[in-house]
Amino acid sequence: MENSFLSTDGTAKKSDFISACRNEQHPRVPVWFMRQAGRSLPEYKKIRGTGSILEAASDPERAAQITLQPVERYGVDAAILFSDIMVPVHSIGFGIEIQPGIGPVVENPFESIEDLKRLRTLEPEIDVPYVGEAIKILSQECPVPVIGFAGAPFTVASYLIEGKPSRLLEKTKALMEQEPEIWDSLMNQLSDITISSLNHQIESGASAIQLFDSWAGLIEPEIYEQKVFPYSKRVLSSINNSRVPKIHFGVGTQPILHLIAVAGADVVGIDSNTPIDAARAKLGNEIAIQGNLDPEICLEPIEVVEKAVSEILKLNNNNFGHIFNLGHGVLPDTDPGVLSHVVEMVHSHKLLERKDG
Question: Which of 42, 44, 77, 315 is least enclosed by beta carbons within 10 angstroms?
C-alpha cells in the first residue's frame, strides 16, 4: 500500500502524512513541525542535559525518546529523527561542534585541495551505528511515520568552508567560482556521504526522508542550477527505496522551486515567504507541498496564529498534496500549547473528497 507505513506491530498502517506525500486522497491535512524534536519542550530540556546535541544524538535510546516527545505532546502525523545534518561529517572526523546559539562551527575550515583528504566514504554501520539503532527503536515504538534526514551537499559544504553559519557565503561562492574542480570533488564526496546516510536510515526503518538545503536560496538561480542542483539531484535519484517519499526543503527558494522539484522530490518544502498558491502556480498540482507557517507568528497572540493557520489552509484549496508545517524550524521560545492548538486547528480542517473526471 503506497499510502501506508509499517506500524509498531509490523503491519501496514494508513497514514495521512504518507498519503499527502503521494498526493493521494485522505480525510484531513497532516501536520508536523521542523525542529519539533526538542527546542521548546520542557521534557526535552530535562532529558537533553548539558551536553552537546551531537552527544545526545549519539545515544540511540535518548534520541528515540526525544523524537517521540512531540508525537506524544502534539499528536503530529510524523516524527523526525532527533539528530543533526552535520552528524555524518562529524563522524568521519572533520572536526565540528554544534555551539548553542550559533550552530555548526568547524575547527579547521575547508580551504584547498588538501582538505579533500579529510573527507572519506561514510560507513554508516561503523561511523554512525547509533542513527540506525535509534530508527530501529522508533520503528517498534513510534505510532506515526519516522522521517530520516540529511543536509544537502551545498548546505553542508557551506558550513565546512565558512567555518560557521553565514548568510553571505563569501568563501563558498569564491571556491565554487574560482576552483571549479575542487568544488566538484567536494560536492561529489559530500553527495556520496549524504547518499550513504539516507539509505542507511531507510534500511533501518525510516518511512520518509527530507533533504535540507537550507542555504540554497542565498545564491543566484543560474549559479544554483549549474553548481548545486546536479548534486542534489544525484542524491535524491540515488535513494534505493522508491516507496519512501522524498521531501526537499530550502529557505528563500521561490526563484528555484521548479529545480528543487525536478531534482527528484515527491514533496517540496517552502519557506514562510512563499505563499502556497504561488508555489502551486510554479509546480502544478502533481507534486506535494509542505509548509509554511512563519515560526515567528507562533510567538504572537493566539488569534494572530489562528488567522495565519486558516489563511494557509485556505490557500491550499483542499489539495490533497499538502503537509502543514512551519516555514523553518520551531523557535526555542515557542509555547508548546500554541503548537498543540495549531495541530488541533489543522486536524479539524477536513479535506473534500476528490471528484475524478
Answer: 42
